[in-house]
Description:
The chain is α+β, with helices and mostly antiparallel strands. The protein has two helices and five strands. The protein has helices spanning 24-34, 44-58; strands at 18-21, 66-74, 83-95, 99-110, 113-125. Strands 1-3-4-5-2 form a five-stranded antiparallel beta sheet, with helices on one face. A hairpin with a 3-residue loop joins β3 (83-95) and β4 (99-110). It is globular. 17% of the residues are buried. The model has no long low-confidence stretch (mean pLDDT 93).
Amino acid sequence: xxxxxxxxxxxxxxxxxxxxxxxxxxxxxxxxxxxxxxxxxxxxxxxxxxxxxxxxxxxxxxxxxxxxxxxxxxxxxxxxxxxxxxxxxxxxxxxxxxxxxxxxxxxxxxxxxxxxxxxxxxxxxx
Length: 126
């Protein structure tokens, strides 16, 4: 897949659709790493982490980038072995003297059904 240049993404521009699979081994490994004691469900933080990881594969972020926040609404649980799609769209950027805040809308779906949506905020140096 062709790389997207972070600085060239325009407000309203969707990034390429991301697809990812949540295997039992990946879920167990992630849950052990972050200290979640149950392996019979997929934690929302894992889904967000994988979606953001997939996003950075197609759109490398500047070295100075910080993930400063997220606000997601979840509508249904995600099962182990589900195949998910993630869609990021740049909502806007806000500039200050020392930094830029980049607001991305995110929608996560499973078989065409939205399971979560919300906003991710990244910060870079100005």
